């Protein structure tokens, strides 16, 4: 290739961004002798000649608007797409509705999603979408939605006459069968993670889609309950398993693929710490404002790589419209210039 050289004097170009990576050039730019392009480094200059295209102007895949109004109100520049995010909430905060809406909004954008359920059978997960008139059955037929059944023991032989299932529940179970992947032992963290990565590969999730895990509290209980002769050792094993799960999920999926993972946990769960995650979303019920009413609120405590409003936002469920803020929230400094996946 033609050797790049530093632009100097009057020949220095005013371009502030690299023609290949698209990021700001902190020092004097490099230019090619035979090209009207500027670069931040020789690596970018070499790659520009070797590849058909560049990354300049194509960073929208690195962040996304979740589509959940109550959450986006606190994240003016979106969520980093390579983040593992802890979703912590107590009973009554509509935590389950939040992660259900996160998945639905991704599917509505034309992106795939994977739900890793340690608590509920797959048909119950699907029914939760239908409760809000979010019909995910077409997405399942398109293979855009996969459901990992990580309940201990699972469910076999779904015959209503034997199991007591309703006809509708049995219909759902049969209809979604091809989208369900069974994981026999939720306490085997390595097996669960291997299955997650296999499914992500099959769906082709790279720079698109998201993962929801519900919930890691169950992982800690499963591992802690089956390991060690003492309660203390079992609890330590559970904490260790959770740390391993989060670290491996980040290293194997979130970081290299730019696929965010929202990991659900019970509020106050001691086995999990915010330090393990790139982001932390807290949900709680405020019972102090009115004696006869408990008001749900959420806050983004932490979100590495993007500005956020750490204040508490009150919200309510608006049915099919999802979770919406009930108080006006500022834009938190969004400039309108940041690209998002949904922006095309």
Describe this entry's structure for a reader.
This protein is α/β, with parallel strands linked by helices. It has 2 domains: 4-50; 60-332, P-loop containing nucleotide triphosphate hydrolases (Rossmann fold, 3-Layer(aba) Sandwich). Helices cover 31% and strands 21% of the residues. It contains 10 helices and 15 strands. The chain has helices at residues 42-50, 69-72, 95-108, 122-131, 137-141, 160-163, 167-175, 189-203, 216-226, 231-257; strands at residues 4-6, 30-32, 38-39, 63-64, 79-80, 84-89, 113-117, 145-149, 180-182, 210-214, 261-266, 279-290, 293-303, 313-317, 323-325. The chain has a 10-stranded mixed sheet, sandwiched between helices. Strands 1-2-3 form a 3-stranded antiparallel sheet. A two-stranded antiparallel ribbon has the order 4-5. Helix 4 (122-131) crosses helix 7, helix 8 packs parallel to helix 10 (231-257) and helix 9 packs across helix 10 (231-257). The longest helix has 27 residues, at 231-257. The radius of gyration is 23 Å and the shape is globular. The two termini are 33 Å apart. The relative contact order is 0.17. The model is unreliable at 7-13, 155-162 and 331-337 (pLDDT under 50).
């Amino acid at each position: 290739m033609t050797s790049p050289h530093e632009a100097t004097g009057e020949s220095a170009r005013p371009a502030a961004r690299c023609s290949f990576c698209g990021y700001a050039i902190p020092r004097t730019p490099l230019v090619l002798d035979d090209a009207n392009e500027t670069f931040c480094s020789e690596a970018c200059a070499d790659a520009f000649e070797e590849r058909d295209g560049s990354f300049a102007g194509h960073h929208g895949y690195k962040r996304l608007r979740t589509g959940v109004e109550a959450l986006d109100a606190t994240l003016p520049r979106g969520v980093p797409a390579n983040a593992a995010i802890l979703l912590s909430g107590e009973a009554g905060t509509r935590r389950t509705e939040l992660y259900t809406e996160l998945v639905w909004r991704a599917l509505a954008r034309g992106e795939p999603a994977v739900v890793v359920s340690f608590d509920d059978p797959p048909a119950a997960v699907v029914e939760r979408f239908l409760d809000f008139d979010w019909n995910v059955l077409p997405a399942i037929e398109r293979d855009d939605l996969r459901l990992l059944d990580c309940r201990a023991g699972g469910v076999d032989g779904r015959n209503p006459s034997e199991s007591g299932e309703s006809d509708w529940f049995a219909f759902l179970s049969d209809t979604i069968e091809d989208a369900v992947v069974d994981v026999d032992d939720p306490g085997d963290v390595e097996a669960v993670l291997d299955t997650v990565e296999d499914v992500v590969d099959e769906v082709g999730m790279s720079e698109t889609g998201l993962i929801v895990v519900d919930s890691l509290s169950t992982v800690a209980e499963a591992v802690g309950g089956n390991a060690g002769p003492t309660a203390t050792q079992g609890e330590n094993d559970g904490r260790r398993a959770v740390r391993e799960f989060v670290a491996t999920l980040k290293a194997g999926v979130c970081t290299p693929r730019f696929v965010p993972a929202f990991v659900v946990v019970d509020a106050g769960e001691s086995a999990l710490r915010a330090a393990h995650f790139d982001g932390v979303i807290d949900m709680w019920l405020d019972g102090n404002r009115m004696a006869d009413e408990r008001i749900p609120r959420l806050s983004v405590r932490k979100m590495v790589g993007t500005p956020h409003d750490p204040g508490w936002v009150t919200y309510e469920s608006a049915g099919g419209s999802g979770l919406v803020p009930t108080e006006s929230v500022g834009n938190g400094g969004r400039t309108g210039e940041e690209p998002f996946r949904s922006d095309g």
